[in-house]
Amino acid sequence: MKRIESAKNQKVKDWKKLHAKKERTKTNTFLIEGEHLVEEALKTPGVVKEIMVADEADFPAMIDESVARYVLSADAFSAIAETETPQAVAAVCRMPESGPFQYEKLLLADAVQDPGNLGTIIRTADAAGIS
């Protein structure tokens, strides 16, 4: 467990960069905040890469040994938090890998109310070569 006192620390700067999509895509990681989100992420082994808590908070009970742990000063924690009143726990998670399915063409239909409309959409997709 490492302690970070300043918002000017390089780790804090790196975590703060994860608020931008460009950095999330580049690092294949994202930042989550809040006790509930962190606990849910910890239920899947290998997802949580780093976990950060503010001075007054405790680490969640189910942390895997491979997860890096940091205790942040109030200043450092507020620098990485996007919420107005942070819950004093955050984590950096790995983005999930894409599933085994790969499609060249895909047709999605949402909330189609008339079955006849769905039939028309299917016939049009078939005529366009989407099968």
Biggest beta sheet attributes: 5 strands, mixed
Question: How much strand?
Answer: 15-25%
Low-confidence stretches: none
Mean pLDDT: 87
Shape: elongated
The helix/strand series, from N terminus to C terminus, equals: EHHEHEEHEH
Structural class: alpha/beta
Spatial strand arrangement across the major sheet: 1-4-3-5-2
Radius of gyration: 21 Å
**Helix amount:** 25-40%
Number of helices, counting only DSSP H or I runs of 4 residues or more: 5
In total, how many beta strands?
Answer: 5
CA distance, first residue to last residue = 53 Å
Structure description:
- The radius of gyration is 21 Å and the shape is elongated.
- It starts with a strand and ends with a helix.
- The model has no long low-confidence stretch (mean pLDDT 87).
- 33% of the residues lie in helices and 20% in strands.
- It has helices at 10-17, 21-27, 35-42, 74-80, 115-127; strands at 2-4, 29-33, 48-54, 68-72, 89-94.
- Helix 1 (10-17) runs parallel beside helix 4.
- It is built from five helices and five strands, in the order E-H-H-E-H-E-E-H-E-H.
- The chain has 131 residues and is α/β, with parallel strands linked by helices.
